[in-house]
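name: query_chain
kind: protein
chains: 1
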Amino acid sequence: MPVSDSPVITAPNGEDFATPKKMRTKIIELSGSVEAACALGVADGIVDLVESGETMRAAGLKAIDTVVDSQAVLIKSRKPSNQATIDLITARIQGVITAQRYTMRAAGLKAIDTVVDSQAVLIKSRKPSNQATIDLITARIQGVITAQRYVLCQYNIERARLTEAKSITPGKRAPTVTTLDTEGWVAVSCMVVKKEIAVVMDKLTAAGAQDILVLDIHNSR
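structure:
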């Protein structure tokens, strides 16, 4: 007996589902992690929506057929009541798509499993014999933690609008400003709190910034 959290897609009219061997069977609706249904003895197979299939493979399952290919699309009215919001959402989606071209998946790689989840802790003696070494290690750890909290934002903007842009991206200490070869333009580089970057990019775009890039920081000091 197969189960699915999307029976309407699997069998649109509620009819029995024909298997490759022409055996007819009924699709049962199941909510939650349907990948675990087989291991729990609830089902003989599942029909599920997947992106990469990693969760399915981790559950010891393998795909035998594709029911339907799908994709997410943004649909707007021909006469939208709030074009600014639509433009904002579109810009954010396009930014993520552009960034994904350079990710691990874009390089043809994929994660197949997690060996172990862990965390690093620093434990010192109450009376350390080498405080300098402890301070050095602590500084290195703090650098990594800072890097995980921030991203590096770079953009180009007209010098006349630099003051407004700097108020949007003041940086951790101060932004780095470099004169461009194009007269009247500067390049700005600064650290921005990662969870705030989407809103910051929106504000920079409204202020006239161009070529906005967001880069991961792997370490800092």
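note: The first helix runs from residue 7 to 10.
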